[in-house]
Amino acid sequence: MLNLIPKAMADSAAQRVMQRCDLLASISETQGALTRVYLSDEHFQANRQVQQWMEEAGMSVWQDEVGNICGRYEAVTDGAPAILLGSHLDSVRNAGRYDGPLGVLTAIEVVSALRSQNIRLANAIEIVGFADEEGTRFGITLLGSKGLTGQWPNDWLDKTDDQSVSVREAMIAQHLDPRKVLQAARRPESIAAYLELHIEQGPCLETADLPLGVVTAINGAHRLHCHFTGLAGHAGTVPMTQRQDALVAAAEWIMAIEKETTAVGGGLVATVGQISCSPGAVNVIPGEVALSLDIRGPEDAPLSQLLEHLLSRGQSIASARGISFRAEEFYHIAATTCDKRLREACTQAVTAVQGSAPQLSSGAGHDAIAIAAQWPVAMIFVRCEKGISHHPAEAVTVQDVAAGIQAFTQAVQLTATSSREYETDDLSQAV
Length: 431
Fold this sequence. Notes:
alpha+beta; disordered C terminus; nine-stranded mixed sheet; Alpha-Beta Plaits; globular; Aminopeptidase; five-stranded antiparallel sheet; 2 domains
């Protein structure tokens, strides 16, 4: 077992992280509300600030061709493959200050802790502040991490924001060359693993009264547009036994979705978040209802089985009421399973800090999804107040962040290809 970094050091680092999160939150396109989007002036202002902090931690720093800010702390042997750490620096509109930046800033503290103790590892450590995970500006997500893995589709440069500015035009305006996007891709052999620390964005850790958890998988998801089509009719003249009411059928299906998804368990969740009724008059029986279905889960096979069952249930409900049902999928992403070896390292590190390591799936997406297409990934969650995220009320405590820094630092050391620590008195070699 490697020794944890001293609690006093972790506490001091956590205070610094909280202050830096506050400072980054002030870099926003809107006064009094955090909004920082891809290829904006605020994007690059945040990059410059993070660059300064990386350099102070002893890292060499560069900005890549898609606008990610990157830093490297060299291994005991120059040029060794890196353990990649990071998260995103962009935000949703009117965001909280910890979703994304907390992972970048705690990663910097990992490097600071190792350097202050004259420790270098068999692997280099690289940190990336990803340029766009949320997709707020252009409606496409994971641009930063997919740039790093070379997964940019050809048409992304032509996507436009709500002002009709394309990604290509926005890159040129910020002195990035859109012809060089693919140069952001890293060689597969240059990275050994990816670890990300992130706020949970859920209530499980708070319920367990624990600051940290280990992520088992990032949920896959299916999203569908669904329709029940019956027959509109006069609300006063059509008998109850002769109605083809699309809204009643939809309501029955919504209740079945909740009940049957709960019964399946296994971390599966299902949500009907949108519904519209036609013709929508107080004195007319609803003839058509359009609604959404979003289902998510940590394993693809059970998720597909649940979807098949729920759609079959919708058909049965419609048939019994003499109406029709149809559904069209418009979005699907497969589940991302965290690497077993990396999960074990995170579990050992979290257990060393708090005595146990709850295993959680993530219902939200992360840059780890894109990175997993190329390299093994794992994540550590930090408790957030009431599970609130994507909102100004997003909150973490200094004590929890300190615990996260301790666990994250140890997980990095355990992940290195050799668990032996390398000490050097020659910090002039620090880059």
